[in-house]
Design brief:
The chain has helices at 16-25, 45-52, 68-81, 98-101, 124-131, 166-189, 204-209; strands at 5-11, 32-39, 57-59, 86-89, 108-112, 135-142, 152-159, 193-196, 199-202, 213-214. The chain folds into two domains: 1-104, Rossmann fold (3-Layer(aba) Sandwich), CATH 3.40.50.170; 111-215, Formyl transferase, N-terminal domain (Rossmann fold), CATH 3.40.50. It has 220 residues and is an alpha/beta fold. The strands form two sheets. An eight-stranded mixed beta sheet has the order 3-2-1-4-5-6-7-10, with helices on both faces. A two-stranded antiparallel sheet has the order 8-9.
Length: 220
């Protein structure tokens, strides 16, 4: 069997994206193996879900540290202790400093609830509704020091419907996130998509398949 990339998932909350990544990685043919779930908040609901799935978990509580660097050094130490090769941010709501990000070139993924570069930052669904966009969605990208600005691996789009509220729109986007993130992780962990000169390069076989685009998402 080919070697599977040792992957950590970082969360701050309920961890529904974490859960679908764990599910996908249960298959022995999936190119990533989840070896650690880490949270920066002790009350992150996803910690219990990960433990129930039989995975090692750790809480590196950012409040227990004097500053961002000390927190990130502790997080980095956990990742090294578990010999992690790839990190997936999944609802991880702490901005990471260049010190941390530069330790994971081409090895740090995030999922963001908008079609980047639209709506970087917070409250993406409220802002999409306020702008009156007709399409919204989610993006998996490599993390760079500029917030939500890294090279894009995969995107999934959903319609914005008449009468949508931030909650109904968030729920529709989340269904896409749950399909998109495992696909994007597989692309990166298998080496089919990689960071090269600040862009995402696809292997020739993958480029012919046009991966990383998710339209007509599954229904609710
Ligand atoms: C997801 O919608 C994710 O895209 C978003 O937080 C939610 C986490 O849900 N991430 C961000 O906003 C990152 N800035 P989950 O804990 O159920 O996966």
């Amino acid at each position: 069997m080919t070697r599977r990339l040792r992957t950590a998932i970082l969360i701050s909350g309920r961890g529904s994206n974490m859960t679908v990544l764990i599910e996908a990685a249960r298959s022995p043919s999936f190119p990533a193996e989840i070896v650690l779930v880490a949270a920066n908040r002790p009350d992150a609901g996803g910690l219990a879900r990960a433990a129930a799935a039989g995975l090692p978990t750790v809480c590196v509580d950012h409040k227990a540290f004097g500053g961002r660097e000390a927190f990130e050094q502790a997080l980095q130490a956990e990742l090294e202790r578990h010999r992690v090769g790839l990190v997936c941010l999944a609802g991880f709501m702490r901005v990471l400093t260049p010190w941390f990000i530069e330790r994971w070139p081409g090895r740090l993924l995030n999922i963001h609830p908008s079609l980047l570069p639209s709506f970087r930052g917070l409250h993406t669904h409220e802002r999409a509704l306020a702008e009156g966009v007709r399409l919204h969605g989610a993006t998996v990208h490599f993390v760079v020091p500029e917030l939500d600005a890294g090279p894009i691996v995969a995107q999934g789009a959903v319609p914005v419907l008449e009468g949508d509220t931030p909650d109904t729109l968030a729920a529709r986007v989340l269904t896409v996130e749950h399909v998109l993130y495992p696909q994007a992780l597989a692309l990166v962990a298998s080496g089919s998509a990689m960071l090269a000169n600040g862009r995402v390069a696809l292997t020739q076989a993958q480029a012919a398949d046009a991966p990383g685009m998710l339209l007509n998402p599954p229904g609710p």
